[in-house]
């Protein structure tokens, strides 16, 4: 869910190209957010369950949180800025959310869109119904759609692109609410996992590429849960049922679960950054455990980019620790806790100046001097974006007495931004897009620097996929975008002209779950879709 704070100030008389240029500048200069969503239907303690589920997703969003509950057909909303525990510090806020269904959302920070109006779930109150919406992802044609809707008289209450879907649903002339959702979904592009809550049902939707992870679980008493990661299922005691498939529209109500599709033109392009960085290590995405995938990345990195005479491997907490285990195993040298993370320090990327960022890194990370003193260190990190944090960490290790620091990155070089919901910078600000490895090594003050190759990354994730392509999105590394990026296209035109960036067309064929080996043990319907529960699931494939 990427925020477009400036959009409400756009003069609709301006040239569309100028509008897009301003949008690109503001939306990609600072880190954007990855979000987490959770929903449950049919529980007396729905809001409490949602709170616990969101707590397991706190790593996906730390600036704001919200929950909307359904109490006998009336929706109630509580939301605020800060961590989940801050927003719901007063137990009265949870206690006010009575009802047997709820959806919740946690979001990351972005520059210029810190108002509570952007905290989700968003809620719309119409004369005949209420709708709440939670969104993880980013719409690549949001600027064009919003401009069109505003010209038609739409009034937006937030600066989030997520609100667009609510307007499109409401303007649809289709007869049923389900058909209104389908018509609206046919107009949006990009990465999206949506949860919608109405007085009578909860709806889950995934984009045609499945950029974002989205899973269904079931409580012991049969109640269904839909959430961003399997780790959230474990926290609330739910069992994993199935991954939501690309192009699916799933309805959960008092009668059970209905598996539907709003499009049959689908592919599988899971964002590789989920495995590299964003997802919790105890989560599984399409049958692949994140910790094991990261460990394999480390193993592959040790083979591709060894460090002769290295004494010890040190991982940057926390997302790089799995890769550090793999690297140490592959290199046959000890893996030590040379860096300790203070879990109670705010994220460093929101600090506005370099000196404040450096101070924040030092507050966030501490060096275990006795581990690194006099040693040749292999420092494992998951990625380099700007490179400033890497430089500070290298300095800290050397100040603590490290003999040398060799940085090894368990992912390929970031060269291009993401437009599907992962936080990335403009190509102009990506270190790897503008500097050679030798230059980057000098800039971060390391003794050497090396990255994992794209092919090794794909092999390490080891998605058991048997369709066209790898089933992953690796565009940030190789420039091969799995779909058009619409409003953002001009920002990469120079690279398109050079042949460094390509855009695949929107899918024209149908992806089937049978193309992923880890899904083979799930119940299939004759058309290849997955049956969530043979006892109570219904299907309405269109």
TrEMBL record:
Catalytic activity annotation: 5-phospho-beta-D-ribosylamine + L-glutamate + diphosphate = 5-phospho-alpha-D-ribose 1-diphosphate + L-glutamine + H2O
Keyword Nucleotidyltransferase among record annotations: no
Residue stretches in coiled coil: none
Gene3D superfamilies: 3.40.50.2020, Glutamine Phosphoribosylpyrophosphate, subunit 1, domain 1 (3.60.20.10)
Domain Glutamine amidotransferase type-2: 35-255
Entry binding sites for Mg(2+): 319, 381-382
Keywords: Glutamine amidotransferase, Glycosyltransferase, Magnesium, Metal-binding, Purine biosynthesis, Transferase
CDD domains per UniProt: GPATase_N, PRTases_typeI
Cofactor binding note from Swiss-Prot or TrEMBL: Binds 1 Mg(2+) ion per subunit.
GO BP terms, alphabetized: 'de novo' IMP biosynthetic process; purine nucleobase biosynthetic process
Entry's EC annotation: 2.4.2.14
Cofactor: Mg(2+)
Catalytic EC class: transferase
Matches recorded under InterPro entries: GATase_2_dom, Ntn_hydrolases_N, PRTase-like, PRTase_dom, PurF, PurF_N
GO terms assigned for molecular function: amidophosphoribosyltransferase activity; magnesium ion binding
Record pathway: Purine metabolism; IMP biosynthesis via de novo pathway; N(1)-(5-phospho-D-ribosyl)glycinamide from 5-phospho-alpha-D-ribose 1-diphosphate: step 1/2
Active site: 35
Superkingdom of the source species: Bacteria
Record family assignment: In the C-terminal section; belongs to the purine/pyrimidine phosphoribosyltransferase family.
Cited HAMAP family: PurF (MF_01931)
Function: Catalyzes the formation of phosphoribosylamine from phosphoribosylpyrophosphate (PRPP) and glutamine.
NCBIfam families: purF (TIGR01134)
Name the UniProt record assigns to this protein: Amidophosphoribosyltransferase
Organism: Leuconostoc fallax
Lineage: Bacteria, Bacillati, Bacillota, Bacilli, Lactobacillales
């Amino acid at each position: 869910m990427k925020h477009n704070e400036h959009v409400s100030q756009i003069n609709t008389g301006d040239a569309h190209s100028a509008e897009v240029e301003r949008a690109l500048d503001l939306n990609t200069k600072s880190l954007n957010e990855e979000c987490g969503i959770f929903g449950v239907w049919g529980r007396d303690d729905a809001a409490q369950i949602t709170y616990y589920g969101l707590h397991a997703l706190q790593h996906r969003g730390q600036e704001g949180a919200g929950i909307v509950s359904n109490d006998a057909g009336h929706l109630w909303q509580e939301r605020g800025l800060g961590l989940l525990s801050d927003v719901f510090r007063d137990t009265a806020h949870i206690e006010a959310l009575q009802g047997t269904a709820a959806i919740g959302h946690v979001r990351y920070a972005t520059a210029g869109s810190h108002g509570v109006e952007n905290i989700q779930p968003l809620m719309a109150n119409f004369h005949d119904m209420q709708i709440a919406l939670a969104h993880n992802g980013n719409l690549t044609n949001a600027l064009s759609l919003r401009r069109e809707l505003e010209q038609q008289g739409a009034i937006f209450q937030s600066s989030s692109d997520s609100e667009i879907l609510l307007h499109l649903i409401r303007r649809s002339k289709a007869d049923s609410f389900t058909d209104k959702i389908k018509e609206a979904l046919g107009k949006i592009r990009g990465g999206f996992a949506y949860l919608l809550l109405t007085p009578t049902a909860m709806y889950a939707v995934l984009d045609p590429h499945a950029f974002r992870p989205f899973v269904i679980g079931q409580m012991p008493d049969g109640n269904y849960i839909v959430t961003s990661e399997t780790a959230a299922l474990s926290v609330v005691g739910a069992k994993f049922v199935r991954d939501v498939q690309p192009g699916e529209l799933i309805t959960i109500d008092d009668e059970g679960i209905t598996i539907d599709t709003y499009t049959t033109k689908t592919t599988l392009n899971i964002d590789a950054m989920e495995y590299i960085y964003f997802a919790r290590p105890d989560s599984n995405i399409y049958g692949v455990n994140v910790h094991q995938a990261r460990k394999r990345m480390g193993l592959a990195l040790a083979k591709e980019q060894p460090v002769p005479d290295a004494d010890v491997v040190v991982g940057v907490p926390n997302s790089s620790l799995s890769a550090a285990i793999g690297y140490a195993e592959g290199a046959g040298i000890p893996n030590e806790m040379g860096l300790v993370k203070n879990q109670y320090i705010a994220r460093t990327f929101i600090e506005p100046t370099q000196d404040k960022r450096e101070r924040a890194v030092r507050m966030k990370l501490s060096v275990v001097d006795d581990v690194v003193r006099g040693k040749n260190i292999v420092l494992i990190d998951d990625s380099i974006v700007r490179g400033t944090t890497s430089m500070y960490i290298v300095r800290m290790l050397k100040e603590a007495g490290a003999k040398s620091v060799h940085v090894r990155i368990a992912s390929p070089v970031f060269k291009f931004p993401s437009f599907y919901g992962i936080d990335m910078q403009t190509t102009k600000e990506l270190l790897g897009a503008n500097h050679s490895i030798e230059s980057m090594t000098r800039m971060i003050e390391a003794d050497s620097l090396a990255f994992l190759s794209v092919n090794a990354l794909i092999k390490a994730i080891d998605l058991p996929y048997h369709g066209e392509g790898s089933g992953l999105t690796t565009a940030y590394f190789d420039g091969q975008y799995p779909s058009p990026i619409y409003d953002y296209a001009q920002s990469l035109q120079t690279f398109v002209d050079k042949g460094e960036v390509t855009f695949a067309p929107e899918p024209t064929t149908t992806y089937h779950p049978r193309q992923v080996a880890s899904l083979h043990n799930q119940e299939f319907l004759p058309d290849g879709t997955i049956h969530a529960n043979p006892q109570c699931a219904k299907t309405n494939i269109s």
